[in-house]
């Protein structure tokens, strides 16, 4: 049993929107954490790893899972990876403290 065409279209649109948000956010993050003189190099490495290795891994593993199991296992596997990414992000940001509103206030 395969998912409906509507479900495939909906998931593709959601994935497209998430990538549309993720790529600029990643580039902005790189710009913030790297010195200006190596920003271009950092963006190149980010693109090579994210778009090159990431796409290869996803396509390769997704194909194996689809051949051996079903499309549902592919969605489950990548859903679990996405959830792990969210959990890791929450753990990494747990220790960070948001800057206070009066942090830049200077008494005169």
From TrEMBL:
<keyword id="KW-0813">Transport</keyword>
<feature type="transmembrane region" description="Helical">
    <location>
        <begin position="38"/>
        <end position="57"/>
    </location>
</feature>
<dbReference type="Pfam" id="PF07690">
    <property type="entry name" value="MFS_1"/>
</dbReference>
<feature type="domain" description="Major facilitator superfamily (MFS) profile">
    <location>
        <begin position="1"/>
        <end position="97"/>
    </location>
</feature>
<dbReference type="InterPro" id="IPR011701">
    <property type="entry name" value="MFS"/>
</dbReference>
<keyword id="KW-1003">Cell membrane</keyword>
<dbReference type="GO" id="GO:0015213">
    <property type="term" value="F:uridine transmembrane transporter activity"/>
</dbReference>
<keyword id="KW-0812">Transmembrane</keyword>
<dbReference type="GO" id="GO:0005886">
    <property type="term" value="C:plasma membrane"/>
</dbReference>
<dbReference type="InterPro" id="IPR020846">
    <property type="entry name" value="MFS_dom"/>
</dbReference>
<feature type="transmembrane region" description="Helical">
    <location>
        <begin position="6"/>
        <end position="26"/>
    </location>
</feature>
<dbReference type="InterPro" id="IPR036259">
    <property type="entry name" value="MFS_trans_sf"/>
</dbReference>
<feature type="transmembrane region" description="Helical">
    <location>
        <begin position="69"/>
        <end position="92"/>
    </location>
</feature>
<keyword id="KW-1133">Transmembrane helix</keyword>
<dbReference type="GO" id="GO:0015212">
    <property type="term" value="F:cytidine transmembrane transporter activity"/>
</dbReference>
<protein>
    <submittedName>
        <fullName>MFS transporter</fullName>
    </submittedName>
</protein>
<keyword id="KW-0472">Membrane</keyword>
